[in-house]
């Protein structure tokens, strides 16, 4: 019978209060002033060492309305990323454009000596990711990718447990999940020319990052991928969610993806992600090893919050035991604050990117391979060039 040991203290990360040097202000520009840009702006406005100097959006008047909504005065508005960067007034930018333009914006900023916080997914193809990494290397600037779940205390504990050796040699991982009714409202996510990748790039990238970051981002060797769009292409699905039936016509991406991924080190990654499904959850994330296995209860684990206590299963002295970790005490600051703060600190101190492209290029290579494999209807080999 499994024995439970629950007398561990709630673990804590990032509880200290940081002293922020306000002598030098970082001049920030925001490229793409849609939905997620609001979260970036709100956090930047909490930072005493930031000056918001610019914004850009392809839609005329959108950047100005965005700043007006938050009472930001004095920021210059531009019609696209090039105009904003060419103005030469930004030390760093947040790139909050839809997926299709991540690469061109990031490369242009880096080539002009501007630090970049790039929203997830990094981009839409492995070739784009390689081009971004080359621009980053040539520039010597900070480029970090916007995976805020990494800063979640429970997510950090997953990595700590793996690092402790309690699992032994890891050989099998199951991850993913998704939403029962969760095709995003914004059309830019649904269209092939703006979103490019659907559930896979939108939330699948988080699930991949959770487990790959925990185990040190081994490289993928082969991927057998599957994608479908049964819900997105169904007018009734949209109507039942209060949207017009015409959304089915513009829907051009995956609403479900699954993959069987072989990783270096003889590890199998079994993955699935859904924007929509007739199911509460397709299962918990599990990491299986020769000495122990870890269960990360699902629900929203693709999004940085776990659905219950982490459970570690082991056999000790001939007895099957299960250690249930108490949920982490909340960080002093939320994950989004920590994502923005860690970027600013790296810019100021010349440190390393908090979420480095050396890792996220692997995440992108898997997304790319899932789509390629699904298109070809067969397993594909994955090869990531040296940068
Ligand atoms: N980290 C998170 O929690 C999170 C949450 C939501 C979205 N995102 C990511 O953020 C990105 C944007 O999502 P969103 O919901 O804000 O989309 P959105 O469609 O609301 O906004 C994107 C904006 O970018 C603008 N744009 C596109 N190319 C541009 C360019 N070259 N120059 C200037 N403006 C340009 C568009 O006109 C649009 O207004 C997506 O890649 C998405 O995956 C991240």
Describe this protein's structure.
- With 387 residues, the protein is an alpha/beta fold.
- It folds into two domains: 26-147, NAD(P)-binding Rossmann-like Domain (Rossmann fold), CATH 3.40.50.720; 149-335 and 366-372, Dihydrodipicolinate Reductase, domain 2 (2-Layer Sandwich).
- 32% of the residues lie in helices and 23% in strands.
- It contains twelve helices and 16 strands.
- The chain has helices spanning 35-44, 62-69, 81-86, 102-111, 126-139, 153-163, 187-190, 199-214, 235-240, 247-250, 335-349, 357-376; strands at 3-5, 26-31, 50-56, 76-78, 92-95, 115-118, 143-145, 170-178, 220-228, 256-263, 267-274, 285-289, 292-296, 311-316, 319-324, 380-381.
- A ten-stranded mixed sheet has the order 1-15-14-13-12-8-11-10-9-16, with helices on one face.
- Helix 4 runs parallel beside helix 5 and helix 6 crosses helix 8 (199-214).
- The chain is globular.
- The N and C termini lie far apart (51 Å).
- It binds nicotinamide-adenine-dinucleotide (NAD).
CATH topology of the largest domain: Dihydrodipicolinate Reductase, domain 2
Alpha carbon gyration radius: 21 Å
Strand content bin: 15-25%
How many structural domains? 2
- Unreliable residue stretches: 1-8
Q: What distance lies between the first and last C-alpha atoms, to the nearest angstrom?
A: 51 Å
